[in-house]
Amino acid sequence: MKRSTKTIRYQTKRSQTRTTKKKRKTRQKKNKKQNNKIKKKKKHDKKKTKQQNKKKNRKQNKQQNKTPPTKTTTQQQ
Fold first, then answer.
1. How many CA atoms, within 13 angstroms, populate the side-chain half-sphere of residue 53?
2. Which of 10, 16, 50, 58 is the most buried (most CB within 10 A)?
3. Alpha-carbon gap, residue 36 to 44, rounded angstroms
4. pTM score, two decimals?
5. Is 8 in contact with 16 (CB distance < 8 Å)?
6. Structurally, how many domains does the chain consist of?
7. Is 7 among the domain residues?
8. 36-64 pLDDT, tens per residue?
């Protein structure tokens, strides 16, 4: 039983479908790889910014918690 497929002249149906299938597969693979790269980069960037923010916040908190030394005032009698 043969499937009806579009073919280019001078090529057999089988070989034509085969090549298109292969091409499609390779294209999909490439796209997938590219997308994964982008995803990884985004994830990495997100993590990095998160870390930097944490660091910044930590510094700020330290700064806030540092109270200037209180001067002891002598009371006049």
1. 6
2. 16
3. 12
4. 0.47
5. yes
6. 1
7. no
8. 999 999 999 999 999 999 999 998 888 88
C-alpha distance across the termini of the chain, in Å: 114
Residue 1 reports pLDDT greater than 60 = no
DSSP secondary structure, 9-27, as one string: TTS-HHHHHHHHHHHHHHH
Instruction: To the nearest 10°, report the CA torsion of 14, 15, 16, 19.
Output: 120
The Cα 72–Cα 27 span in angstroms is 76
Domain that holds residue 31: 12-61
35 falls within a domain: yes
pLDDT at 5 over 70: no
